[in-house]
Every structure is written in C-alpha cells, then in structure tokens.
Amino acid sequence: MIRSVLKIGGSLMDVANDLLQSLTKASVDVLIVPGGGPFAEAVRRYSRSLDDTAAHWMAILAMNQYGFFISGKGVDITDVIKDDVSGISVLLPFREVFACDPLPHSWDVTSDSIAAWVAHQIDANLVIATDVDGIRLGNSTVSSVSANDLTFETCVDSFLPHLLVRYAINCTVVNGKHFERVVDAVKGAPTTGTVIRGRE
Question: CATH homologous superfamily for 4-197?
C-alpha cells in the first residue's frame, strides 16, 4: 500500500536521480507527484497571453513533463491515482486532475496543492521536498506551524494551507537535497523540516 505522497519540486532536478536511488534503497512505498520546474516556468513566461484556465492546464501538463524526466531514472509511471501499488511510482497528474477539476484555475495553485489533493484521495501521508529546510518565521526555520497561520508568502503555494485545513491533513516540508530527511519524512519518522498542521 502507498503510505506517502511525495512532491518533488522542480528545484531538485539536478539531484532527482540520487534522491530516487535513496528512496529505492529504503524500500518505501511512495507515489511521487512531480513539480513543474522549468517546464512550468515556460508556461509562466507566456501566461500574459493566456487566460487562467489555459495556463492552469498547461502548467499541469508541465508536471507531466517533469514526471517523464523523473521516470527516465528507471521509476514506474502511472496516470491513475491508486492506493494499492507498492514501491515507487511517479504520477502524471494531468488525466486525473483534468477529469475531476478539483482546484481553482490560478497561479496560487501549483503542484503543492495538487499533491495535497492526491494525498487526500488515497488517505496518504504528504511530504513536500523542495530546496529549502522548511518554513521560515523571522530568521529561523520552524519545526511546526499551523496551516491557519500561513498568511504570508512561503516556500509552498498559497492555496496549500487552505487545502490542509479543508482535508484535515498535515504536510511535512523537507530539503530534498538531504536525502535522509526525505526518507524519514516518507516513513513518517521525525526529521529536520517543518510540519504544516492542517489537523490540529
């Protein structure tokens, strides 16, 4: 059974192969939701010429592109959200999200929110791997913060806290360049990072 949904940000493109090797060695069950990375940035560059709906679907297609990049490292791919798959697989999210259309069409919604929606669908642990150590308040990174308190710009998208509260789930944000932190978070073990509490 898949125990965790792991969003791998586009900022981790250069280390994705090594991160996946670490996850494979740890023998974890995880469904990876890819970020958009440079593929989504290409959509942003042309967004002034697009309406919000076109930009939304193009950005999610960009996630599919990054998913193929990750799967090129020898990881299985799927375009169906299932909770009965063991091992590591990469979700190409466009098909499922397009069919359900569960989220606002806005740049406030990125792969972070999509990962939260996926985790909710299969009642899974949610981990977001990015290129920072977690959520910063003032001059320090905090180990835990309520989703209700995230009313300022952070390393996650601005719609994510609303979803965490709506779904009553928590999310762990970790630095994906520290592979052991990602492995621990996926296993549900304490690690260096920030737990965003949607479930109080």
Answer: Acetylglutamate kinase-like (3.40.1160.10)
